[in-house]
Amino acid sequence: MAAQTQTMTAEPKAKETEQFLTGAQAIMQSLVEQGVDTIFGYPGGAIMPTYDALYDYQDRLKHILVRHEQGAGHAAQGYARMTNRAGVAMVTSGPGATNLMTPIADAMLDSTPMVCIVGQVKGNLLGTDAFQECDIIGISMPITKWNYQVVDADEIPEIIAKAFHIAEAGRPGPVLIDITRTAQTDKMTKPFHYPKEVDIISYRPRTVPKQEHVEAAAKLINAAKKPYILAGHGVLLADAQNELKEFIEKTGIPVATTLLGMSAVDADHPLYVGWPGMHGNYGANVLTNECDVLIAIGMRFDDRITGDLSTYAKQAKVIHIEIDPAEINKNVFADAPVVGDAKEALKALIPLVKQNSFPEWRAEFAKYDAIEYEKITKKDIFHDGDQIKMGEAVVMLSEKTKGEAVTVTDVGQHQMISNRYYRFKKPFSSVTSGGAGTMGFALPAAFGAKVGAPDREVVAIIGDGGFQMTLQELGTIAQSGLPVKIIILNNNFLGMVRQWQQLFFDRRYSFVELQNPDFITIAKGFGIAGHTVSDRALLSESLDTLLNSDKPYLLEIICEKEENVFPMVPAGTCVTNVILE
Amino acid sequence: MKTTYTLSIFTSNTIGLLNRITIIFTRRRLNIESLTVCETERVGVSRFTIVIRHDSREAVEKLVRQIRKVVDVLAVFGYLDHEIVFNEIALFKIATPLGGTPLNIKEINLDWNAKVVHWGLDYVVIEKNGTEQEISEFYEYIKNWEILEYLKSGRVAVGKTEKGLVEYLPEGNWEVV
Description:
The complex is a heterodimer.
Chain A: H1 2-8, H2 23-34, E1 38-41, H3 48-55, E2 62-65, H4 69-83, E3 87-91, H5 95-98, H6 101-109, E4 114-120, H7 136-140, E5 146-150, H8 156-168, E6 174-180, H9 181-185, H10 211-223, E7 227-231, H11 233-237, H12 241-251, E8 255-257, H13 282-286, E9 293-297, H14 303-306, E10 317-322, E11 336-339, H15 342-349, H16 359-381, H17 390-400, E12 406-409, H18 413-421, E13 430-432, H19 442-452, E14 458-463, H20 464-467, H21 474-480, E15 485-490, H22 495-504, H23 519-525, E16 529-533, H24 536-548, E17 553-558
Parallel strand pairs in A: 1-2, 1-3, 3-4, 4-6, 5-6, 7-8, 7-9, 9-10, 10-11, 12-13, 12-14, 14-15, 15-17, 16-17
Helix pairs in contact in A: 2-3, 2-8, 4-6, 4-19, 12-15, 17-18, 17-24
Chain B: E1 3-12, H1 17-27, E2 32-39, E3 45-54, H2 57-69, E4 73-80, E5 84-95, H3 105-111, E6 114-119, E7 123-130, H4 132-142, E8 147-152, E9 156-159
Antiparallel strand pairs in B: 1-3, 1-4, 2-3, 5-7, 5-8, 5-9, 6-7
């Protein structure tokens, strides 16, 4: 655009002022210069000037119109989880912005980089209870890594650059920028300049750890007899999966991944021992309380992993490699804290640790695996009951996709089963709502993941309950034409809540049974093909139909109604207290 | 046993930061005893002085790390009382009606180290600086007269270190006011 090239020149002349960008154009230009390619959004009054500017930027910025602002947020999250870059959501003020709060809270807990651009009423109307006015800065403050209200068009490039920097640097997280309508419509009073580098004096997260901390950690590792690694989301966020592989192969230390760290290690790697936590693997839980050195990498000792903290890994020396210093000693005391990025920390550690192998210690995991296989896995995947079990469906999916698909799961039983039985062969393959446990996450997040990684097979696996929370995003998927594959594991129950009611509330099934709609008709209404399968004999070909479709496809699998997910460590109890059946 | 902790928090001077800091306390159900915000000798740097009482040093350390985590926070220091020089300012509006017992100004000045800062028609305003303890002792003394109004500020505190705290701020081109 001619106007822009002119405004890029350094010294403005008075006559050129009228050719300066408007705030709305500055938003668009900033996104382009930031390298953003996709915006997930929904227009409305207070963001209309920016949508008007977007009209001229369609060749440089792909905008995806969602069906609900929550969908924009989760799609941006899914995109971010595939690309390790901030996903962008753009919505209007008031209800548009409040609808974005759930994805923001979700992204905060799961350290997902996201930049939310939110319209706000005109500057002179702030604080007057104007139409669609809402104190979104106040509301979003506890759930954003940073937020800021822009009232002056001149601030826009600098603030947007800062927003992306904060969202992606250190421990990533969501950032919200609230931009008044006036700041969008006003012209800048100076030439547009987008800062290439951002340095925030109060925010310079340490990426390279202190050498003495790395040495202290190496010393503990080299003296360990029964070391155990818990690898979290931080490994993937730092793109450190190769360093982790090198580290475990040199040290011979068994490694588990957290729910969010899932797929950071090849599931078939001989040192991979599964995942810890409430529905994690038997050995991965129990042996936490037998290891002598626990090496936590890029994870935060969530209560779903630790259970009762007063009995958690008390015998072990804990090495905590973590980029966020506030996580050190927050839940579990670290004997050797290493503050830094997982990649840098592992790079520094690898030369300092001894080549080793722990055959006897690893045999302990194998022992528990055998029990778990006998008591749980076998029953889940080979059984002759009338109805399909979730586990067998996921195992079949895993085999058919050779463990190379991206699974995007919602929250509940299907989520645990999917992550339990899908054998992830590639990093960045499990997208799920972990910390927040947001039902309704999977469908829009799967769409966002497909946008972020169009060459990968993306399969959303969703329960019948969660699916109904954001099913309107079928419209977004249909409009995009992207072949997102959707599986509903339908047990006609809010299964996880029902399981808890069965186990801990004396089978008093309080409001967990659903009268479900005909999901296939709904999908067809949106222009998405699909079918239902309830017969085991047809499961394989049904999955083939789903996977072979070059368009979005919905497969509803009718599952056993009252299946439970085991193993289970009841909430707040010791990790050795594993229920197997 | 609860201990008093004084937190000195240095931040960049941004709108909304007060909120962002106080929600860290409210979310953990921590009561703020007092809070004072002021500008510092460095341009664009604000200083929060927050007093809390807590029975767990570990919890206070966690709190400090959560505050430090806020993007616009430059530095946080936590102190015990013996590590700082601290003060508060109290104002007492005392009735001085005709025929009432006259105030002993000499005693107020010399024994209590307080002073009358405003003479009204039938009242005076007395300013008393000191620690919470000193102010509360003075309160006990002055309540022999009718207290019309009493209020006091939050604590301000400086550490007993040789260097100023701003020396510990991240490296940058700090402009001095």
